[in-house]
Amino acid sequence: MSATELLQLFFDPELFERYGVRMLDGLLITAKLVAISFSLGLVLGLLLALGRLSRNSVLRGATGAYIYFFRGSPLLAQLFMLYYGLGSFRELWQDLGLWWFFRDAWYCSLLAFTLNTAAYQAEILRGSLQAVARGQHEAAAALGLSRRTTFFKVVLPQSLLLAVGPLGNELILMVKASAIASLVTIYDLMGITKLAFSRTFDFQLYLWAALLYLLIVECIRRLLRRIETRLGRHLDT
What we know:
Blueprint (H helix, E strand, L loop, with lengths): L2 H8 L2 H40 L4 H16 L2 H11 L4 H7 L2 H4 L2 H27 L2 H9 L4 H31 L11 H12 L3 H33 L1
């Protein structure tokens, strides 16, 4: 087999011309889905983390049950439950004016990813909040700062610094897990790849998709390394 034939086995210019741009469009959909759900999950995760640290046993138990369920069950099952399960109650959602949401695979995927990542981020944030030295609370109290000001100005910023690495790992896991959104007709990177493969039966499409996922992960990893390096210099001083 010549070098040209070997190259064409992994990169067919005609195939790339037909589907390359569409795969890049799918990549943007993947990035959008992950970015929005991760951001919403961060907000919800912080609320859940505070619930886990609450002195209220009911609130602590409720948030603990939420985290246990979403961390203990497969993301695919959660996605199907929202899209196919809740989506089957059409009349109810129409009466509530929410049918526009549950009939759309995009919104259901966004909700499933948000609820799932929030559970993982909650545990990350809970650990980072508990890792802030008790002396920080005492110093803030000695300065006469209110509990609200202490949390938002002293505790939360330090806890987020500690959580950067684990949150970055969660973001990478989300990027890789986002491929399952294609199972509910989302034309993200994997959805476009599956569609193209069904028409060509050329395995190199999946190779391209894998390389694009790897590219995203590597960009995130390098960005996290730079952030941690900068924060590390700050914390060392």
